[in-house]
Amino acid sequence: MIVEFDKSFEKSLDKLKDKLVFPKIEKAILTLEKADMLSELTNIKKLAGLKVY
Questions:
Q1: Alpha carbon distances (Å) from 9 to 4, 12, 32
Q2: How many CA atoms lie within 13 A of 7 on its CB side?
Q3: Which string of DSSP letters, residue by residue, matches 1-52?
Q4: 1-52 pLDDT, tens digit each
Q5: Residue ranges covered by each domain of the chain
Q6: Which pLDDT belongs to residue 21?
Q7: CA distances from 13 to 18, 23, 24 (A)
Q8: Backbone angles phi, psi at 18, to 5 degrees
Q9: C-alpha distances in angstroms, 47 versus 5, 24, 27, 43, 50?
Q10: Dist CA 15 CA 39 (whole Å)
Q11: What is residue 53's DSSP assignment?
Q12: In this predicted structure, what is the pLDDT of residue 51?
């Protein structure tokens, strides 16, 4: 899966004070990149008001 990030995500990462969360974020990003379809991912929730993911 192609994963893209906007500048606001990068700025949010820069503002994080708890540096122990970075390995968890990295793991989540790697999991997203390895997946071919959203249905392969676990623990995701549908956005309210939308019919798809």
A1: 10, 5, 16
A2: 0
A3: ------HHHHHHHHH---GGGHHHHHHHHHHHHH-SSGGG-SS--PPTT-S-
A4: 888 888 999 899 999 988 899 999 999 999 999 999 888 888 887 778 877 7
A5: 7-40
A6: 93
A7: 10, 12, 12
A8: -85, 95
A9: 18, 22, 22, 13, 6
A10: 31
A11: -
A12: 73
Residue 53: what pLDDT? 61
CA-to-CA distance for 34 and 50, rounded, in angstroms? 25
Unique residue bearing structure tokens 């997946």:
35
How far apart (Å, rounded) are the C-alpha atoms in residues 22 and 17?
Answer: 10
Rg (CA), the chain: 13
